[in-house]
Write a structure and sequence with these properties.
By secondary structure, the chain is mostly helical. The protein has one domain. The protein has 9 helices and no strands.
Length: 303
């Protein structure tokens, strides 16, 4: 089948192009569907390999035990792996089996439906699915930047990193692989996905996204306290009220949630002065974190 098969409607109405299909199409003309499929496969394989290596390093070298399960960096990394395999599956099925829904129901078509992007319909259920997927998408691609920000601006200056600053180099390739994949490469891949691999734009109210990201980041805070109850340790020291006090711990929680939300892409609509107006969507980088949130996190370094 030709790689030019798009199946994207040409009309531009409310939520014009299905958000699920936008995963399967790059915004760049030079990246056709076949190229995108290959890039997605390589990215998914690399993320899976590096995730396994990161977990092996933590388990065998650092002996972190169950604390790894409560580490925000590991959770963000796992979500990236999950998303990229899902995106690869959707892109593959959309390229090779775009019309499976019109075929007679069978075990084969049911399997194709399972691995294909959902069909967008004008009903409340589909509308909710669009919102949840959009929140999931932006969470997956903003959380790695929060991890990177915390690592290099909060933990590194106070020597609370998993690998001490003086041991990153000169202690074998695995140490460097661990540090740069968990706290740098994942952010780079998130940026590549947003700007080169998918053409997703925020299709729903920004308040739905703020609520969703706030809920997910708050859920992690609760999960980190569950980890403290289970292991006696926090993955992030600044959540530990026994070490930093309740005031700083509370400020850290608010800064953490604000940091996650400030990665929310923003759409700016422009209208040309010509008789036929054109609407352009511009997304800010998920890397752009709010100054207030950053300043609050950095304030933990004082004293």
């Amino acid at each position: 089948m030709s790689s030019s098969t798009a199946l994207l409607p040409k009309d531009r109405k409310n939520n014009d192009h299905p958000i699920f299909l936008r995963v399967c199409h790059s915004p760049w003309i030079s990246i056709d569907q076949k190229s995108l499929l290959a890039l997605r496969f390589v990215t998914a394989v690399y993320l899976s390999f590096s995730f396994v290596m990161v977990q092996d390093f933590e388990h065998n070298q650092q002996k972190r035990g169950w604390l790894s399960v409560f580490d925000f960096g590991n959770i963000a990394y796992f979500l990236q792996v999950l998303y990229h395999w899902m995106a690869f599956s959707w892109t593959f099925m959309h390229l090779h089996y775009p019309h499976h829904g019109s075929q007679e129901r069978s075990a084969s078509t049911l399997m194709q439906k399972f691995f294909s992007p959902p069909r967008q319909r004008n009903n409340s259920t589909c509308g909710n699915n669009r919102v949840w997927f959009s929140v999931f998408y932006y969470a997956v691609h903003s959380f790695p930047h929060v991890v990177t920000l915390i690592q290099w601006s909060v933990l590194y200056p106070r020597n609370h990193t998993q690998v001490p600053a003086g041991e990153v180099f000169g202690h074998g390739w695995l140490v460097k692989f661990f540090v740069f994949n968990k706290f740098a490469v994942n952010s780079a891949i998130a940026l590549i996905e947003v700007f080169f691999f998918s053409s997703i734009k925020r299709a729903d109210s920004v308040w739905a996204h703020i609520f969703g990201i706030t809920f997910l980041s708050s859920a992690y805070v609760g999960w980190s306290y569950t980890g403290y109850a289970a292991t006696g340790k926090f993955a992030y020291y600044f959540f530990d009220h026994n070490k930093v006090g309740w005031d700083d711990a509370s400020a850290a929680v608010m800064a953490f949630i604000a940091s996650a939300n400030s990665g929310e892409p923003i759409e700016i609509s422009r209208h040309s002065s010509s008789s036929t107006a054109s609407r352009l969507s511009v997304r800010s980088s998920p890397r752009s974190l709010s100054k207030r949130a950053t300043d609050t996190l950095l304030s933990l370094n004082k004293g």
